[in-house]
Write a structure and sequence with these properties.
The chain is of the alpha/beta class. About 35% of the residues lie in helices and about 15% in strands. The protein has 8 helices and 8 strands. The strands form 3 sheets. A 4-stranded parallel β-sheet has the order 3-8-7-4, sandwiched between helices. The protein has a two-stranded antiparallel sheet with strand order 1-2. A two-stranded antiparallel ribbon has the order 5-6.
Amino acid sequence: MDSLFPIFCLSCQKEGFWLCEKCLGQAKILDFQVCPVCEKNITDKGFLCSDCQISQKSPLTGLISAISYENPGVKHLVHHFKYRFISGIAEPLAKLIFKAWLQNDGPLPDFLTPVPLHPRRLRWRGFNQSLLLAEKISSDLAPLMNLPVLDILERKKYNQPQMNIKNYQERLENVKGIFGVKSNFDKKIIKNKTILIIDDIATTGATIFECAKVLKVNGAKKVFAAVVARQSLINKT
């Protein structure tokens, strides 16, 4: 297949890679993280800032973003990953998240879980990009421990993509209450666990917060999240 349809680095066009090692090494990992709630204050390792810890009851302990979404190469990679269905791009994107997680001394979770897709969108794309990222990251985080990836969450209804909604409040409403734990999983596996949610891009962060809320309600001790990049809030009114 590679002979008939060779792949090329989407950055430098080197044959054999979707993102070659040289270009991957040039992708600058963010040297700071911000509060996942207000996005105004730089915080240690993506934890909530002191103001939000007081004013917000957030289900999320921390959120780590690997690189800036303003990087045009990032948008290019993610677009090909999600909308041209190139599953092989999961590997370089997962490496970026893994580097950021190590750089910020992220804790070793009990297990990873991806942000779920609705079955309708999963049939359209053919794979859950967040699940592919989680599986790649898991093998790097603990190569000798077989760190599990548990696809335990589900979307209970089909909603429009967050990227299509510009208003912050409408984005919150769009994902409110749409997630739950799959019926074939024993909820006891969540209790007192430290869990890492994986997704590709966070817009307002509302999707990840809703996932974290479900996990916390079901007894999770701490819930972290990691993404390739996060967009700036467009309209938080």
